[in-house]
Every structure is written in structure tokens, then in C-alpha cells.
Prior knowledge:
Elements: E1 3-6, H1 8-21, H2 26-41, H3 52-60, E2 71-74, E3 79-83, H4 89-107, E4 109-117, H5 123-131, E5 135-141, E6 162-166, E7 174-178, H6 185-193, E8 203-204, H7 214-219, E9 221-222, H8 228-243, E10 266-274, H9 282-294, H10 310-320, E11 324-327, H11 328-338
Helix pairs in contact: 1-2, 2-4, 4-5
Amino acid sequence: MEKVKVQTSILKKQVVRIFQKFGLSKDHASISANALINAELVGAYGHGLSRLKMYCDRISRKVINPKPKIKIKRISQSVSHIDANNSIGFVAADLGIKTAIKHAKKTGIGMVAIKGSGHYGLSGYYAEQSVKKNLITMIYTNAPPAIAPHGALKSLFGTNPICFGTPTGSKIPFILDTSISMINRGKIRVAARNNQKIPKGVALDKFGKPTIDAKKALEGVQLPIAGFRGSGLAWMVDILSGVITGGNHAGRVKDPFDDFTGPQNIGHLFITFKANLFQKNYNQRIKDNIQTIKKLPKIKGVKEITYPGQNKYYRYKKNLKKEIFIPDIIKKDLEILIS
């Protein structure tokens, strides 16, 4: 698989131009481009430029609204409900986290539910915005069917990520951003597109047999973490992000790559609150918590016990100083979309 090097600033300008070409405002194009480039910089390629063509295809097929009339309903000083009007998910999520942050800064806690949205990339990207404001955050969003509920033969739950973020008293935030599947669906899509194998034990084919063929995995079922516990967590996220928000749920979220019969109507839930609500010395306590765990005896081959988000932060800082390597197949997508 050949790769080419592109300067980050140039790549971002290209993506902004592409989104504008497909009807997004300059502001919305910039918000979307920033999220995609961030995914590349942290090494989450399944949520990066590999999805750009999909977003543009959905705009062209009129199942993403490039000129949304987003409505915010204020329920209380701390709670808002957003109807994203089928906007691209990045724009809806950006507004959602910023609104939740605003509420938390004013009242101590913020909760924002969103309906009528789409795939928004990495939950951790939005959690970081909250943590930088010294807020703790929890974020939930559902996804198209990929995992069968425990005991069922048919996939229904998405890979439904769970995200938690907290300040650490240092420049590196604690960000746990994980799907409830063994690996996220984006990685399988990237593998399928590049004719690569996937690890054993992460998926079954459509006949219910284990497979390392990425294309067969996409036609079959992904496996949840921890068996029935992972299935239960996926169900929880489906309720929190789908049922209570007004978004699609119970397997009704459409696959963004293959189903153009209508908008995804994904739901998101953002919860933010001040870290020092109950203990004024929170930063001191979280530092003690982290340092205590880092000082534990380490197993052979482990140099450092890292907390969630730490390695991703290091990758981001390292990659920010370098050019981004993108597969030739993605470069061709960019050339076609921008022409």
C-alpha cells in the first residue's frame, strides 16, 4: 500500500475546499475538516480521511443537509435539546459540546441531547474541548447495526462508543474513548478497502463463522467486548443516545456508506460538569490517583503504566510536527473530490 506525504496545513485547506464545493459554509467546512485532520494526527485513520468521500456522497444524495437550520431548545439553565436538521455530524457535535460547556461553566453542570445528526468522528475530540475548560465529561452516540444483542442471531446495536474525560492537573488529559466492539468498525472498513486482514476473534461472517477477512466481517457481525457485558453496554448507549434524544435507535440508524434511503438521524448526549463540584482540591486528588497507579509494580516489558488518552496525546504531538502520510487510494479520492 503506497503512501504519500502531505503537509497538514495544505491537507486541511484541501478538505475545507472539498466540503465547500459540496455546499457547506466556510465555517461548517472548517469545523468538519478540523475533526477529520485531528483523527489522522492521533492515528485514528478509520475516522479520518477514509470517510471523506462517504460524507460527500451523502451530501450529494441529499441525506446530509449542507445548509441546516439547527434549532436549540433551552429546557433549563443546564439542559438543552438540539435538532440538528440532518446536518453533518461534526457541526452538530461541535455545537453540542460548546453548549454543554457553556451550561456547565454557568451552573456547574451541562446536559445537551442532539437528534437529527450523523456520524461525528471521534468522541474523544469533543471530550478534549470540555477537559480543556477544567470540566469532566461523558459522551454517548449510537451507530449503525454491527453487533448482535446477546442471544440474538441478527446484528442490531452499533459499535456505540463510550467516552469519559477528566482534567488531570497536567497538560495531558485523561480521555477514555472506546467502542464496545473488539475493534471499531472504521478499522475494518480501512482494512477492507486496502485488502488487509483483521485480527482473529473480532468478527464473524454472515454464516456465524469466525473470520479475518475484513469484507466478510462487514457482511457479518462484529463481536462485543466482554461478551454479554459488552452487549449490555451497547444497549445502554443506544438508550442514552437514541431513545431519550429523539434520534434513531433499536437498529434504525442507517449505514453511512451503503444506505442512502434517508438521513441517519443519529442521537448524541453530552454531559459536562465542573471537576471541583464536590471536592475543591480535585486536581490534587486526581494527581494522587494517577501517580499512585503509575507507581505500581510493572509486568515484564512494560516501561510505563499509561492512562487512557496519554498515548494518543503523544501521537498527536509527534505527528503535528510532521507531514501526514496518506494512502494513495485516499489521495486519489481527494483529487477526484476537489476537481
